[in-house]
Amino acid sequence: MRYLEEYRDPAVARALVERIHRTASRRWTLMEVCGGQTHTIVRQGLDELLGDAVEMIHGPGCPVCVTPLEQIDKALAIAARPEVLFTSFGDMLRVPGSECDLQQLRARGAAVRVVYSPLDALELARRQPDREVVFFAVGFETTAPANAMAVWRARELGVPNFSVLVSHVTVPPAMTAILDSPDNRVQGFLAAGHVCSVMGWTEYEPIAAAYRVPIVVTGFEPVDILEGMAMCIAQLEAGRHEVENQYVRSVTRSGTVPARRQVERVFELVDRKWRGIGTIPRSGLALRPEFAAWDAERKFGLADVTVAEPAECHAGEVLQGRLKPHQCPAFGTLCTPERPLGAPMVSSEGACAAYYNYGRLRTPAGGAA
Question: Going from the N-terminus, what domains does the chain have, and what CATH number goes with each?
Answer without folding.
Answer: 1-311 (3.40.50.11740), 315-357 (no CATH)
